[in-house]
């Protein structure tokens, strides 16, 4: 991805003014207040923020993710240290990349670098409208690549699709409270979203097909049992009552 001509956001102004002079995110939230102040304070006091997050632009984010992000997570360990993932998420809130840059993160870069995709999905959930959140995140419910997740309890294994699902259904992910999403069916009723089609197909059709297959198997099994039962009864009758052979004249 080429380096776009972008501004380098003012670190001090963004943090000191808590975004009061910056534009709102597309979902109407103040980007400087999306993360809790206590979490932001831990981020800006961290070594990673001071060493790796100063003066970055949107293209630099890719380099930092590739070099330093090896797991998703928020606050880790007894010292409550912020992860590089969370630090870069705050940097994205400060940079406010446009949809074209996010598309690069999600698709071109995301196909190669799964943690870049995860970071972009997280940022989309924090800043985009419910309609755009569903439309952007749902396609990645079919990305089954493994991710490492790190939290206060330690490191565990997850997957891109599970992380995407968490962003859609949970209230808090990576030490960050997520704003309440409008229910998907409500957006469908308002004609803002089309009904989601599962990659497995329509659920009712699948259930009907399973029921038909079970009935066919039961029917075939019943016919076989009936044939066996009749054959056995015929053999029993033959033994008990052997047919008399006709005598020759």
Automatic annotation (TrEMBL):
Predominant location category = nucleus
Q: Which domain of life is it from?
A: Eukaryota
Q: Where is the composition biased (Basic and acidic residues)?
A: 9-20
Its subcellular locations are: Nucleus
Q: What is the lineage of its organism?
A: Eukaryota, Fungi, Dikarya, Ascomycota, Pezizomycotina
Q: Where is the composition biased (Acidic residues)?
A: 202-225
The protein here is known as Pre-mRNA-splicing factor 38
Primary gene name = 20348731
Single Gene Ontology BP annotation: mRNA splicing, via spliceosome
Entry keyword annotation includes Nucleus: yes
């Amino acid at each position: 991805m080429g380096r776009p001509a972008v501004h380098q956001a003012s670190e001090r102004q963004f943090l000191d003014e808590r975004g009061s002079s910056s534009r709102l995110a597309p979902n109407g939230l103040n980007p400087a207040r999306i993360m809790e102040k206590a979490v932001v304070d831990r981020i800006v006091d961290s070594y990673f923020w001071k060493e790796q997050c100063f003066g970055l632009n949107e293209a630099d984010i890719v380099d930092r993710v590739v070099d330093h992000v090896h797991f998703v997570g928020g606050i880790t360990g007894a010292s409550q240290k912020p992860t590089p993932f969370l630090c870069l998420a705050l940097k994205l809130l400060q940079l406010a990349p446009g949809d074209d840059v996010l598309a690069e993160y999600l698709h071109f870069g995301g196909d190669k670098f799964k943690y870049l995709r995860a970071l972009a999905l997280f940022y989309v959930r924090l800043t985009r409208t419910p309609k755009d959140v569903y439309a952007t995140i749902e396609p990645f419910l079919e990305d089954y690549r493994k991710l490492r997740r790190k939290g206060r309890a330690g490191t565990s294994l997850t997957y891109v699709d599970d992380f995407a699902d968490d962003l859609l259904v949970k209230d808090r992910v990576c030490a960050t409270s997520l704003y309440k999403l409008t229910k998907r069916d409500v957006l469908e009723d308002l004609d803002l979203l089309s009904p989601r089609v599962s990659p497995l197909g329509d659920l009712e059709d699948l259930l009907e097909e399973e029921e038909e297959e079970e009935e066919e198997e039961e029917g075939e099994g019943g016919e076989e049992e009936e044939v066996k039962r009749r054959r056995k009864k015929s053999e029993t009758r033959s033994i008990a009552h052997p047919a008399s052979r006709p005598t020759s004249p």
